[in-house]
């Protein structure tokens, strides 16, 4: 890198050069396209980013549902600094450290029901993968070694590692990596707005849930280990299930001795208006996975929390019981755990769950105003500060825009031009702002979306 060159100058060079400064890093987008208009953030504070050119962006996505307590939160930063002065790494093969124990105890205290045994990891993929391994190992230890199959849902996303990816049901991310791991099945999610069975809630008999029982029966209950679901699905367009769905799933899993795993990587730590979506829906899973907001973006950390009877199965003489066979180098890292404790304390002491409910209702009202103004908004879904809009060409028939129109992406990109960071796909858009967001900030986000939506529609005639 030339010493005299500034980062913006290097970016400009990269956009006109076959071999440029940006060719050395992979990003999630197709690199050749991203390099034409690269977005590189330089700093952040509160709920805002500024890129390397000084442009401000309202963070209506919490980075990617991560920055729960805002950017530049001094409580979290100071906690990390104090921990750096004491212990930055402890040997995971030989034991743990005080802050990891403190975080595990805190999560066990907060989790609903008898969810009180915690495995700390670094990211969402690791912890959902651990939950899959836990389910299979648990059944082996309890005399049912044939129970190994995992039932997931189409349109779901549980992570990038082989097991978590195999449990996922998003074809755009699976196909390029296939063949994936064996033993994974998929069922349709509770997409009530577009029921795959051609039914309408509430006169549908909850086919999307009862069908899971049918699949377990057809596969043979003696072969099924677990069902894994996101309480509110993300990648299918914020799939918010009917109230009866998760309780019915709980009953089915109990009936067939199948573990119920909640992937709360996004919905955990206050996002839905309660500390866990399990509380929002009033259902206690056998295993609960959290990540993203747990570390607030300050350090990578995630946690798998399981029910006490399951954890007890992993206790015993080492000659007969190896314990839970799963581990990673940075699990229970003291820096990450210190950050997570500070984040959870912020959520509790500032009652950010309540703020998520209050501002979530304000966000819902803002989306509803837009729906009255623009006929292209077909459905509004989600809870708390995790909500999405589905776009349609015809609200009466629910006909979508043709895929090549890329309507949601056009709206999302226009919003980005106006300084609004959100999640967008061809048919939907989602907001997940920090839990510290104020009423004024929510209104500004909605206003920017309003402007962006209006401009795209005007261009389309």
CATH topology (fold) name of the largest domain: Aspartate Aminotransferase, domain 2
Spatial strand sequence of the major β-sheet: 4-10-9-8-7-5-6
Please give the alpha-carbon distance between the first and last residues.
46 Å
Report strand %.
15-25%
For this structure, what is the CATH homologous superfamily of the largest domain? Answer: Type I PLP-dependent aspartate aminotransferase-like (Major domain)
How many H/I helical runs?
Answer: 16
Mean of residue pLDDT values: 93
What is the molecular shape? globular
* Total domains: 2
Beta strands, count: 15
The stretches of 5 or more residues where confidence is low (pLDDT under 50) are 15-19
Helix content: 25-40%
Oligomer: single chain
Which architecture of the largest domain per CATH?
A: 3-Layer(aba) Sandwich
The biggest sheet, with number of strands, parallel, antiparallel or mixed sense and barrel status, is: 7 strands, mixed
Question: Structural class, judged by helices and strands?
Answer: alpha/beta
Please report the first level of CATH classification, the CATH class of the largest domain. Answer: Alpha Beta
Question: In short, what is this structure?
Answer:
This protein is an alpha/beta fold and 461 residues long. The protein has helices spanning 7-16, 31-34, 62-65, 74-86, 98-110, 124-141, 162-167, 171-174, 207-219, 245-255, 277-281, 308-312, 334-349, 352-373, 407-417, 439-460, and strands spanning 41-45, 48-51, 56-59, 115-121, 149-153, 184-187, 224-229, 259-264, 287-290, 302-307, 377-383, 386-391, 420-421, 423-424, 428-431. The protein has 2 domains: 39-69 and 352-460, Aspartate Aminotransferase, domain 1; 74-349, Type I PLP-dependent aspartate aminotransferase-like (Major domain) (Aspartate Aminotransferase, domain 2, 3-Layer(aba) Sandwich).
């Amino acid at each position: 890198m030339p010493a005299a060159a500034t980062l913006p100058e290097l970016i400009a060079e990269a956009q006109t050069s076959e071999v440029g400064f940006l060719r050395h890093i992979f990003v999630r987008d197709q690199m050749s396209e991203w390099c034409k208009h690269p977005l590189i953030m330089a700093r952040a504070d509160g709920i805002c980013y500024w890129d390397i050119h000084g442009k401000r962006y309202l963070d209506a996505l919490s980075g990617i549902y991560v920055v729960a307590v805002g950017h530049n939160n001094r409580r979290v930063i100071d906690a990390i600094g104090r921990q750096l002065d004491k212990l930055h790494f402890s040997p995971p093969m030989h034991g743990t450290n005080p802050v990891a124990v403190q975080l595990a105890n805190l999560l066990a205290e907060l989790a609903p029901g008898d969810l009180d045994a915690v495995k700390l990891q670094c990211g969402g993929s690791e912890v959902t993968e651990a939950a899959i391994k836990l389910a299979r190992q648990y059944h082996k230890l309890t005399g049912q070694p044939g129970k190994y199959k995992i039932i997931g849902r189409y349109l779901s996303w549980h992570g990038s590692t082989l097991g978590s990816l195999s449990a996922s049901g998003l074809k755009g991310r699976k196909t390029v990596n296939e063949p994936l791991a064996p033993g994974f099945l998929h069922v349709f999610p509770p997409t009530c707005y577009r029921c795959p069975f051609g039914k309408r809630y509430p006169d549908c008999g909850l086919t999307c849930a009862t069908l899971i029982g049918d699949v377990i029966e057809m596969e043979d209950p003696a072969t099924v280990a677990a069902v894994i679901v996101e309480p509110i699905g993300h990648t299918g367009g914020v799939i918010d299930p009917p109230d009866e769905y998760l309780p019915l799933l709980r009953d089915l899993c109990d009936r067939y001795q199948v573990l119920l795993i909640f992937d709360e990587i996004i919905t955990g730590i206050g996002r839905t208006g309660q500390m866990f979506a399990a509380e929002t829906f009033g259902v206690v899973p056998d295993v609960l996975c959290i990540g993203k907001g747990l570390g607030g973006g300050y350090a990578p950390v995630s946690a798998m929390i399981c029910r006490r009877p399951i954890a007890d199965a992993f206790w015993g003489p080492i000659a007969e019981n190896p314990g839970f066979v799963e581990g990673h180098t940075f699990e229970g890292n003291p820096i990450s755990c210190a950050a997570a404790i500070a984040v959870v304390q912020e959520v509790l002491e500032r009652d950010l769950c309540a703020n998520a409910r209050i501002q979530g209702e304000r966000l819902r009202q803002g989306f509803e105003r837009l729906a009255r103004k623009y006929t292209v908004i077909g459905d509004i879904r989600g809870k708390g500060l995790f909500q999405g809009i589905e776009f349609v060409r015809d609200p009466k028939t629910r006909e979508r825009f043709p895929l090549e129109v890329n309507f949601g992406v056009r709206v999302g990109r226009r919003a980005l031009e106006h300084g609004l960071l959100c999640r967008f796909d061809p048919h939907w858009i989602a907001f997940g702002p920090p839990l510290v967001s104020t009423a004024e900030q929510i209104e500004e986000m909605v206003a920017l979306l309003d402007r962006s939506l209006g401009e795209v529609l005007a261009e389309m005639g």
